[in-house]
Here is the input.
Amino acid sequence: MALRSLPLLVLVGVALRESCLGASSHSLKYFSSSMSDPSQELPHFVSLGLVDGQVFVHYDSNSRRVQPRVSWIKKVGKEDPQYWDRYTQRERSNEEAFREGLEILRLRYNQSEGLHTWQWMYGCELQADGSKGGFEQYGYDGSTFITFDKERLTWVAPVPQAQITQRKWDAIQGYNQRKKYFLEKECIEWLKRYLSYGKETLLRTEPPVVTMSSKTEVEDGMETHVCRVDGFYPREIDASWMRDGDVWLQDTLCGSVAPNADGTFHAWLSIRIDPQERGHYRCHMEHDGLEEPLDVALEARWTLPA
Here is the structure.
């Protein structure tokens, strides 16, 4: 789960359910990363806050100050004048704790000095149907170190070096209960608050623009069709290939949802079929920007030159 270098990279995943791409939701996530022996150009500690994948606050060990990254988050200071100072003090404390944590783990792993990374991710998600999710986990040197199981109220240690931490945290009275309360209650409340601040951008809808392309493989005569989806917002889109009205996953590939420069997103999905079956297939998608589901027929083929 962890990332090996700074600045922190946020990876966009693909939710594989019955379709290639995920269903509608909103999320609030925090990513913090610290490394020993940083280069002169990079800070040793970086922390980001993201709403729906959009960075809204940033802190690093060079500036030592939480900074807004979008205009709408500045509204919080008008309602809560102590917000930025309180947030900054919290990140400064985290910075020091991460520095100490790196040294503890280096000794626990019996490693020499040098480049090591210690990272923390946590957050919550609100689905369109009202269901809620939350997670918290730590990573060391690019691998998962420990994760929180909020349903069982315990920490899970996938490596022996994390068992000491697991026993320590599980033994703190009320600690895990507070973690669960934050992920399921406080985090969701903050998410809703941030969505209200940034509703002009975060709650807007932009419908997808769909283009189709195809090619015929000279070797076997099979066709590959690509359905490209562009310019949509929010990020979540339910897209799949359909055969005679049913979701068809055989011989399909999906690209991850990726951002555009204007804040919208794009994605693609492809399918390989017998050309005689072309009329049975449609590229199907559902998105908040569409009034109704969209089905796009396959384009005529073109043959690659020998």
About this structure: Confidence is low (pLDDT under 50) at residues 1-18, 301-306. The first helix runs from residue 75 to 79. The first strand starts at residue 25 and ends at 35.
